[in-house]
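Data card: per-record layout.
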Amino acid sequence: MKKLAVLVSGGGTNLQAIIDAIADKTITNAEIAVVISNNANAYALERAKKHGIPGVCVSPKSYGTRAAFNEALLQTIQSYEPDLVVLAGCLVVIPEIMVKAYPNKIINIHPALIPSFCGTGYYGLKVHEGVLSRGVKVTGATVHFVDEGTDTGPIILQKAVEVKQGDTPEILQRRVMEEAEWKIMPEAINLIVNDKVEIQDGLVKIR
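The structure for this 207-residue chain is written out next.
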């Protein structure tokens, strides 16, 4: 059984999708060992508690420097010995020490089709605002491995979502979650924990 550490910052809708997928066997061979949030008030921690999953807050506000916070976050994750670190709506910039500690063992969900509308500054509603202001007809979500860059790691799965007339950033955000994020994040986890994913020449191959 592979162990997951899930990192969150807010409501935890992607966390819930993972919990549900483990319960209905969409994800096999995995359990959530811990949910870690940088925000003590994140509803995601309440979701974890409801399902009997350990929940921990590691907040930058508790540390004098960013380096001290980064070290504490890494040590907290390592204490649960996860096989895979899942960023599920985590707004913390993942430090290089963590990427080096877990090479190709950290995945992230981004609410757009990378390489569009990604990188520094594109998070949360800002992604969907960018999509609408550009007038694109198709958006979606991407699950990718995390490397030292921002949204630059190897792509695992993508799913397209139609942009509709009259969409607001909030409406589009919800549709991308429902039609893409909540589907491909559990799918990607299931592939990884069952050893169906390998990286060759910087590209993901699914067996």
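Known properties of this structure: The CA atoms of residues 85 and 102 lie 8 Å apart. The first strand starts at residue 2 and ends at 8.

See the next section for split statistics.
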